[in-house]
Amino acid sequence: MDRTSAFLARLQDNATRTETLLSALLSDVAFADEIIRPGQLLAAMRHGVLNGGKRLRPFLVIETARLLGGDAAAALRIGAALECIHCYSLVHDDLPAMDDDDVRRGQPTVHIAFTEATAILAGDSLLTFAFDIVAAPETTLPDAQKLDLVLALARAAGIGGMAGGQMLDLAAETTAPDEAGIVTLQAMKTGALIRFACESGAIVAGAPVEDRLRLRQFGEKIGLAFQLADDLLDLTADAQTMGKATGKDQGRGKQTLVSLHGQDWARSTLSRLIDEASVLLLPYGDGSDILIEAAHFVANRRN
Amino acid sequence: MDRTSAFLARLQDNATRTETLLSALLSDVAFADEIIRPGQLLAAMRHGVLNGGKRLRPFLVIETARLLGGDAAAALRIGAALECIHCYSLVHDDLPAMDDDDVRRGQPTVHIAFTEATAILAGDSLLTFAFDIVAAPETTLPDAQKLDLVLALARAAGIGGMAGGQMLDLAAETTAPDEAGIVTLQAMKTGALIRFACESGAIVAGAPVEDRLRLRQFGEKIGLAFQLADDLLDLTADAQTMGKATGKDQGRGKQTLVSLHGQDWARSTLSRLIDEASVLLLPYGDGSDILIEAAHFVANRRN
Predict the structure, then answer these.
(1) pLDDT band at A249 (very low <50, low <70, confident <90, very high)
(2) What value does the CA radius of gyration of chain B take, rounded to a whole number of Å?
(3) Contact criterion met (CB < 8 Å) for A147 and B143
(4) Residue B65 clears pLDDT 90, i.e. is over it
(5) If you measure CA to CA, which chain A residue comes closest to B43?
(6) Which residues contact A241 (CB under 8 A, 6 or more apart)?
(7) pLDDT band with cut points at 50, 70 and 90 for residue A239
(8) Is the dihedral of CA B100, B105, B111, B112 positive or negative?
(9) Which residue of A has its CA nearest to B168?
(10) pLDDT score of B239 more than 60
(11) Three-state secondary-structure class, residue A108
C-alpha cells in the first residue's frame, strides 16, 4: 500500500471509530447527573454530528497522540469532543442569522431538518457536551492533563479562537479587512481548532513542552494550508463536489489571501507550508509519515 | 441588623464581587492561547452578563462553599463561571427563534443592542468561557475538584439539564405536558443550574459526599421554590416590576403547576419547600442562617 492509500485507510478507520464513539455517547440513556435527554434535541444533535464528515480534527488528535505514545482510547475521546465543537460551530454557522445555509454535506442543515430553535439548542448542547466528554471519568488520563485539555479547548473555541473568528468573518462582509486582518480571522476561525487538534495529542501523551510546542506549530501550518485550500476550492470547485454552496466568498465580495495574491501564489504557499510542516516532524522519523501525508491531503483536497 | 437585611447586604456584596471579577475577566486583553478578542463580540458578551442581575446563583455557590469551609476566591470564580452559563442561556433564549424578547432587566436584549448573529456568538462564547474560568490555573483548587466542577457544570447545563429543559419548554407551547412532564421540564430548565450552584459549594470545599448530597438536595428544594415563585409572578406581577414581559405563560397557553393547582396550593407548597430546605441545613447550625434566608427570598421575591 502506498503512503496515500495508507493515509486514506487510516483516515477512514479513525473516522469510523470516532463516529462509533459519538453515536454511543449520544444515546438516549442519560448519564449520571442528567435528568432526561429530550428526544428531539438528541436527534438534532445526532443530525449535526453523525453526518459523514472526514473527521480530520479527530484524526489529527489521534495520530499526534500515537506519534508521542499517548493512550489511544483517551485520544479518541478528545477527538470526539473536538468534533462536537466543530459540528456545533457548523450548526450555528448555518443558521439564517449567520450564513443561512440549507444544505451541508448534501443533507438538510439542522435548522431545516428540525427548527431554528432546535438548531440553536443542539449547537449549545454539543458545545457543552464536548467538555463533558473531556472531563468524564471515562477519559482515563491524569487530572492535570484533562484540565489542560479543557482549558486549551475552551480557548481554541471561544472569543479568542473560533467563535471570535466567526465574528470577524461576519464583520468582513461589510468592512474589508487588510491582509493582516484576514490572517488573524483565519487563524481564529479555522486555525485555532486545527492547532488544538495537533497540540492536544501532545497533551494526551503527557509529552514534554518542546514536543507540545512543535506539534502546535505543526498544527498552525496545517491550519493555514487548510484555509488556503478552502479559499482555492471556493473559487474553483462546484457545489456538487463540495456538498455545499461554493463561490460564496466572491459572491459576498469577501477578500481572501487567494483573491489578494492569486492562485499561483496560493499553490506555491501551500507547497511551502507542507515542507515546513514536514520539517517540524523530522525528529520523529518514519512514525510521522502519516501526519505528513495528512498535510498533503489537507493542501490538495478536492472537497 | 435583622436576618433579612443581613441577607440582602450579603447578596449585594456577593453580586458586586461577582461583577467585578466578570468585568475583569471579560477585558480586551486576550489570555494566553487566545489570539485577539474582537471588540464587538466582547461588548456583546459584557452586555449579556454585566446587566445588574441579582446574581442568585453565584450567591449560592459562594455561601454554600463558605458554610463548608471552602476557599472564598475559588468559590467566587465558580460563581462567575455559573453566571456566564446562566447569562448565555438568557441571550439565546431571547433570540427571535426562541422567546423573541426585546427587553431584559429594562435594557435591550443582546440581539437588539447588537445583531442576531452577534447574540448567537456571544452566547456561544459565554458558554465556552465558563469552562475556561473553572479550568484556568487561577482557580486554585485541587485538580480533581476542578474536574468534578467541569463535569457537574456540563451536565447541569447540557442536554440532560438546562438546554434540554429549554427544548422541553419550547415543545410545551404546542404539546401540553402533564404534571410529571412539567416537573421534569422545570427541574431541567431552571432547577439544574440552581442545584449545581449549591452542590458546587460542597465540591469547592472538598466536603464529604454526605455534605455534597445534602447541599444538592437543598439546591433542589430552592430550585423548585424558584420556579413556583416565577410561575406565581408571571400570573400576578406587572412588566415594570419584572423588567421583562409577564403573563407570557398564560398568553401562550402554557401550563404551569400554578395553573394546574392554583395560587393557594402554590403558596403552601412554597412554605413547605422552605421548611424542608431549612431542615436539610440543621446540622450546620447558625452558619446556615444566610442560606435559609436565601430560601425565603427565592420563595417570596417580587421580581
Answers:
(1) low
(2) 19
(3) yes
(4) yes
(5) A159
(6) A302, A303
(7) low
(8) positive
(9) A38
(10) no
(11) strand
Classify residue A55 by its DSSP letter: -
Neighboring chain A residues of B36 at a CB cutoff of 8 Å: 160, 164, 184, 188
A158 to B34: CB separation less than 8 angstroms, yes or no:
yes
Answer whether B33 sits within 8 Å of A132, measured CB to CB: no
Cα–Cα distance, A91 to B121 (Å, whole number): 12
Distance CA B79, CA B133 (A): 10
Residue A235, burial from CB neighbour count under 10 angstroms (0-12, 13-18, 19+):
middle
**Phi, psi dihedrals of residue B37, rounded to the nearest 5°:** -110, 105
Q: What are phi and psi of A198, to 5 degrees?
A: -75, -40
Of B36, B128, B159, the CB nearest to A184: B36
Measure the CA–CA gap between A84 and A90, rounded to whole angstroms. 10
Determine, for residues A121 and B45 on separate chains, whether the beta-carbon distance falls below 8 Å: no
pLDDT at A200: 98
Positive/negative CA dihedral, B156, B203, A85, A185 = positive
B167 and A33 within 8 Å at the Cβ level: the answer is no
In whole angstroms, give the CA distance from residue A153 to residue A145: 12
pLDDT tens for B19-47 read: 999 999 999 999 999 999 999 999 999 99
Residue with cell 429549554: B166
pLDDT for A63-98, tens place per residue? 999 999 999 999 999 999 999 999 999 999 999 999
Q: Which residue's C-alpha cell is 478552502?
A: A230
pLDDT bucket at B244, cuts 50 / 70 / 90:
low
Question: Is a pLDDT exceeding 90 seen at residue A5?
Answer: yes
Q: Can you tell me the distance from the alpha carbon of B3 to that of B19, in angstroms, rounded to the nearest whole number? A: 24
- Asked if B194 and B57 touch (Cβ cutoff 8 Å), the reply is yes
Percent of chain A scoring above 90 in pLDDT: 89
Q: Provide, as residue numbers in chain B, all residues whose Cβ is less than 8 Å from the Cβ of A27.
A: none
Q: Provide the mean pLDDT of chain A.
A: 94
Spell out the domain ranges in chain B.
3-300
Strands A107-108 and A103-104, by their bridges, are antiparallel
Contact assignment for A160 to B95 by CB distance below 8 Å: no
- The domain at B3-300 falls in which architecture? Orthogonal Bundle (1.10)
Chain B residue numbers touching A88 (CB-CB < 8 A): 124
> Mind giving me the DSSP string for chain B?
--HHHHHHHHHHHHHHHHHHHHHHHTSSSPPTT-----HHHHHHHHHHHSS----HHHHHHHHHHHHTT--HHHHHHHHHHHHHHHHHHHHHHTSTTTT--SEETTEE-HHHHS-HHHHHHHHHHHHHHHHHHHHSTTS-S-HHHHHHHHHHHHHHHSTTTHHHHHHHHHHTTTS---HHHHHHHHIIIIIHHHHHHHHHHHHHTT--HHHHHHHHHHHHHHHHHHHHHHHHHHHH--HHHHTS--SHHHHTT---HHHHH-HHHHHHHHHHHHHHHHHHTGGGGGGGHHHHHHHHHHHH---
Grid coordinates representing B126? 459565554
pTM: 0.96
Which are the contacts of B22, defined by CB distance < 8 A and separation ≥ 6?
B49, B50, B80, B83, B84
